[in-house]
Design a protein that fits this description.
Layout: E1 2-11, E2 14-24, E3 29-33, H1 40-48, E4 54-62, E5 65-66, H2 72-77, E6 80-83, E7 90-94, H3 95-106, H4 115-128, E8 139-140, H5 146-160, E9 164-168, H6 176-189, E10 195-199, H7 203-209, E11 213-218, E12 221-226, H8 229-237, H9 240-243
Parallel strand pairs: 3-10, 3-11, 6-9, 9-10
Antiparallel strand pairs: 1-2, 1-4, 4-5, 7-8, 11-12
Bound molecules: adenosine-5'-diphosphate and magnesium ion.
Residues 40-41, 85, 168-169 line the site of magnesium ion.
Length: 247
């Protein structure tokens, strides 16, 4: 289970997550929705071990073990993966080499690494995402369109096969065909050993992924949790509905 327990986070002395609790068990997909600036990315980055966030109080655990104070690579080895809202460019490092290095680091170099098997799997996954083979030899995110960056994040996830994933607005910048491919890729990971937190403020992705639980975040707190009906209410009434305590 991925558990966030009464978490309070600050950045630059400003509280951005304020007493947030959430439990995500394997087999479940949870959606996190909320206005810009609500604290969604801050929550995601803190779970991943981003050094800029100070944990003022509370805890984050992965399978019962706290991630507080751990480095991002240690948290990744615990089975966690964050698909970034704004992935960084790494000129000179190709997509294929980056993913290969990440896989090797994850395995601690313990398993021997077969290049033929690696490329076979890489091309299979790229095919699922509608990516040309040549994409793998481009520099990571360097000159990528918004949609290409997001697909590249999903490609990394499919290759690393994490247990817990946070998708931070992975749908932004995608056209409808890419959105369907990304949704299909997320759905293909769904099983008893996988759990996901899908952060979005678009409803389209949620229609395809159909989360088991939906949480609305406002000012760093969960103000509403429930099922898919929350999405319908959001479509009909907007966020004011929840601010006003609507059910
Ligand atoms: N590096 C930073 N320095 C200062 N404030 C930040 C920083 N990053 C985010 N914030 C602030 O934290 C709040 C939450 O932001 P964020 O978590 O990105 O929200 P969301 O992802 O829900 O749009 C915002 O008020 C934002 O301005
Ligand atoms: Mg964000």
């Amino acid at each position: 289970m991925l558990a966030v327990k009464n978490l309070k986070l600050s950045i630059d002395k400003k509280i951005v997550v304020d007493g947030l609790s959430l439990e995500i068990s394997t087999g479940e997909v949870h959606a996190i929705i909320g206005k810009n600036g609500a604290g969604k990315s801050s929550l995601a980055k803190a779970i991943a071990g981003h050094p800029d966030y100070e944990v003022v109080s509370g805890d984050i655990t992965v399978d019962g073990e706290s991630v507080i104070g751990k480095q991002p690579d240690e948290i990744a080895r615990m089975g966690f993966f964050l698909a970034f809202q704004n992935p960084v460019e790494i000129p000179g490092v190709t997509v294929a080499n980056f993913i290969r290095a990440a896989l090797q680091a994850k395995e601690h170099g313990t398993t021997s690494f077969n290049a033929i098997d690696f490329y076979k799997k890489l091309y299979e996954k790229m095919d699922v995402l509608g990516m040309e083979k040549s994409f793998s030899s481009r520099s990571l995110n360097d000159g990528f369109s918004g949609g290409e960056r997001k697909r590249c994040e999903i490609l990394q996830m499919l290759m690393l096969e994490p247990k817990y994933v946070v998708f931070d607005e992975t749908d932004s910048g995608l056209d409808i065909d890419a959105l369907k491919m990304v949704s299909a890729a997320i759905n293909s990971m769904r099983n008893r050993n996988f759990a996901a937190m899908v952060i979005t403020h678009h409803n389209k992705l949620l229609e395809y992924v159909h989360p088991d639980f939906v949480h609305v975040i406002s000012d760093g707190k969960i103000i509403k949790s429930g099922g898919f009906e929350i999405i319908r209410n959001l479509e009909k009434f907007g966020y004011q509905f929840f601010d006003a305590g609507g059910q």
